[in-house]
Amino acid sequence: MFLLIGLLRLLARLPLRFHYAMGAPLGWLAYLGSPRYRNRLRQNLRKSGLWADEADYRRILRANIVETGRQAAEFIPLWYRDAADVRALVRSCKGEEAVMEAHQRGRSIILLTPHVGCFEVAAIYAAFLLPMTVLYRTPHIPWVNRLVIGGRARSPMKLAPATVQGVRMLFRALKQGEAIGILPDQVPGYGEGVWVEFFGRPAYTMTLVGRLFASTNPAVFVALAKRLPRAAGYDIELQAVDADLKGNEGAQRLNDVLERTIRACPEQYLWGYNRYKHPAGAPPPPEGWEKPAQ
Q1: 286 assigned to some structural domain
Q2: How far apart are CA 99 and CA 103, in angstroms?
Q3: Domain for residue 6, yes or no?
Q4: What is the reported pTM?
């Protein structure tokens, strides 16, 4: 483990363009090597309707394969470089003033970072501005979990596992007027979500954001960290979410917000993620909706 971490730290020193060059073939290997993944990516993108014609669909598809590989490779510099160096990769942050103004007024902050662009760098950047606790899903493999914690813990943010204890950490942070970060398009477990639309299809959507929203009436922002061409870094755009996120209606409003964010950069969304899966034990989607893709 120590040798592996040492190797990752050495690799992290290499320019971002190296990791992007390594990530592009990784994306194609994953796409060509797994029919199940390939079919899910193609189906999710096609049914989103975010393409003008067949040529545009194929353009977005090819770009997305490469961007997905880059997302897999960029964790090395993001987790294993000095956090201040990672922050320097952010070239601009539009909307930062609104977040800081809300924080200075004493409001807690919920930062929504869906699987679009480099969501990791958005949370790292925010942690330099204000106290930040980020929810993460613990990998099932212990040594992988140690890598995740060892890498992410290098930044100023606190890590909250996706457990009862971790959720309590989020509520506590909000009540103390701090900020929290959540991947809002992760599929929740049984009893933690409701079926609402996401790009016109039934998606089991977390209710945690709504419960957190109801606890302290925080200011909510959605972050989009776009990868810039030629490995030039990232531009972050923060948009205020002016919607009531409580209850089932709030879960639908949450997905509507995420859709608008993804529409701004469909090439960099994680279309291969199994967003429409049916969690074990969860009730089926309401009648009239098609069976979700597995």
Answers
A1: no
A2: 6
A3: yes
A4: 0.93
pLDDT for residue 140: 75
Instruction: Report the CATH number at residue 197.
Output: 3.40.1130
What is the model's pLDDT at position 141?
Answer: 79
196 Cβ neighbours under 8 A, 6+ residues apart: 202, 203, 205, 248, 251, 252, 255
Q: How many CB atoms lie within 10 A of CB 206?
A: 20
Residue 278 lies in a domain: no
The residues of the chain scoring below 50 in pLDDT are: 291-294
Q: Which amino acid is at 41?
A: L
pLDDT at 293: 45
Question: Domain of 153?
Answer: 2-268
Judge whether 292 and 277 are in contact, CB under 8 Å: yes
Cα pseudo-dihedral 43, 264, 239, 181, rounded to 10 = 40
Q: What is the dihedral of CA 219, 129, 227, 240, to 10 degrees?
A: 10
**Residue 218 belongs to a domain:** yes
Q: Which residue has the tokens 């050495």?
A: 10
When divided into structural domains, the chain yields a total of 1
